[in-house]
Amino acid sequence: MSDNIDAKRYVDKKEKYSHILRERFDRREIPSFQELFSHSQNALLNHEQKKGKDIIQFSFFITTREGDIMLIERSDKSHVITRGLSLLVSWSPSVSLFPSGNSWPSDQDDLFFIFHKEITSELLKKPELKYTGFARNDIDSERTYYFHIFEAHYPYSSFEFKKMVSNIGRKHLFIKDKDIFVDILSLENLKNRYVITNDVDSALLDFIHRKRLKEVYMVGENCILLPGSFLKN
Q1: In the structure, what pLDDT confidence band is assigned to residue 214 with cuts at 50, 70 and 90?
Q2: pLDDT at 177
Q3: pLDDT on residue 35
Q4: For 160-185, what is each residue's pLDDT tens digit?
Q5: 163-168 — which CB contacts under 8 Å span 24+ positions?
Q6: CA 171 to the chain's CA centroid
Q7: Homologous superfamily of 6-230
Q8: What are the extents of the domains in the chain?
Q9: What digits encode the pLDDT tens for the residues 20-55?
Q10: Burial code of 19-54, b = ≥16 C-beta within 10 A, e = fewer?
Q11: Contact 170, 180 (CB under 8 A)
Q12: Most distant CA pair in the chain, distance
């Protein structure tokens, strides 16, 4: 098992708020960022120490002018839970203050700050961010991940985007070169050419495919994605 140490924001499952968060999610309620951050904390955790915790992640899938989606390969050396092909780049907001001066993300610059903790290239600064939804993924009986998911939309065509990434270098799009750009593909080609096995990615693919914003999308028994329309202001 990997001994990777990650800075994570989390809610301890022993805390009352962990139960409140699960119950509210089951009622299709998404807590505000301020509420979630006021009830969570930061720490450096190895894989074993993530047991008994609800890990908070902010995740982004990248789209082009045509609506095509970026596919990446997650490095086995840097990831333990979610490996292989993925649509999402993620970071657990393990900081005490954001650029706004608040302890929770409260404006677009705070969200850009989170996004660029993973996407480092200067050519990809400040995409249009659209809130997609909130996912809960029960990895096992001891580990749960909650994902705030955003679409990061760029005005470039898919051809322009791939050319730009080629000039950057496939491995230099991400922090520490831990993940690798694979391709920009239409939803149809993604489904036909690649097998996406990660629960959250599969739920997101199904969500994008259906585009019915008042539905709940579920993969197996472990992962549920609530549309952003349920977000509490």
Answers
A1: low
A2: 54
A3: 96
A4: 998 888 887 766 677 655 678 888 98
A5: 164/123, 168/121, 168/123
A6: 19
A7: Nucleoside Triphosphate Pyrophosphohydrolase (3.90.79.10)
A8: 6-230
A9: 999 999 998 999 999 999 999 999 998 889 999 999
A10: eebbebbeeeebbebebbbebbebeebeeeebeebb
A11: yes
A12: 50
SS3 for the chain, per residue?
Answer: CCCCCEEEEEEECCCHHHHHHHHHHHCCCECCHHHHHHCCEEEEECCHHHCCEEEEEEEEEEECCCCCEEEEEECCCCCCCCCEEECCEEECCCCCCCCCCCCCCCCHHHHHHHHCCCECCHHHCCCEEEEEEEEEEECCCCEEEEEEEEEEECCCCHHHHHHHHHHHCHHHCEHHHCEEEEEEECHHHHHHHCCCCCHHHHHHHHHHHHCCCCCCEEECCCEEEEEHHHECC
Distance CA 72, CA 181 (A): 5
Mean pLDDT of 78-101: 80
d(CA 99, CA 111): 9
Query: For the CA atoms of the chain, what is the radius of gyration?
Result: 17
Residues 6+ apart with CB under 8 A from 56: 8, 9, 10, 11, 36, 40, 92, 93, 146, 148
Query: CA-CA distance, 37 to 94, in Å (whole number)?
Result: 10
Q: Are 71 and 190 in contact (CB under 8 A)?
A: yes
Amino acid (1-letter code) at residue 47: H
Question: Do 139 and 223 form a contact (C-beta atoms < 8 A)?
Answer: no
Strands 143-153 and 53-63: parallel
